Structure formats: C-alpha cells, structure tokens
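User: Please look over both lines:
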Amino acid sequence: MLDESNSLFKQGQADAAEQRLNRILQRVPTHAIARGNLAAVRTLQGRHAEAMQLLQDLVADHPDYLLGRCNLAQMLVEQDATDDAHALLVGLIEREQLHI
C-alpha cells in the first residue's frame, strides 16, 4: 500500500494516495513513513496546518526520523520560523543513529 500511495502521489492523485496511507495508519498508527507521506499529501491538497501538525507529531514520536525533521524544518522556514527550524536540525550530525 505504501508503494501504491507513492505512485498515486507522483501522479497527482492525492485523494487516492491519502486513502492508502490512512489504511496503513489504521493498522499501524505510528508508522513514520506513512505519517510523513500523509503530510506531503496534505500539503499537496493545500491543508498546510494539518500537514504541519502531522510532522510535529511525527517528530515527537520518532525524533530520529531524519526526513520528518527535514520536512518540518522546511515548512517552518517557509513560515519564517527559522529559529524553530534550526532547533530541529542542530546537533543531528552528532547523533549515533538516524533513521533515513
């Protein structure tokens, strides 16, 4: 389902991708990749506040998930919250392990 959702997203079929991701999240509510991808879908749909909340929750639950941190930092930069973005990224190079 994750691969299907990625393909649908790349084809611009956000609603169909969202359905697949929601099915994954019904089974595994904390699935990091599915939550991050759902945030991307919500962004494509223009649902920026929901995307931001998804990424904030994702980073809180999975602090070592690098892509989630980077995507949240990007959204914060776009909102001129550069200090918050910096706080998300500072020190990552010193961590022993990051989920990539």
Q: What stands out?
A: The chain has a mean pLDDT of 93. The first helix runs from residue 2 to 10. Helices lie at 2-10, 14-27, 32-44, 48-61, 66-78, 82-89.
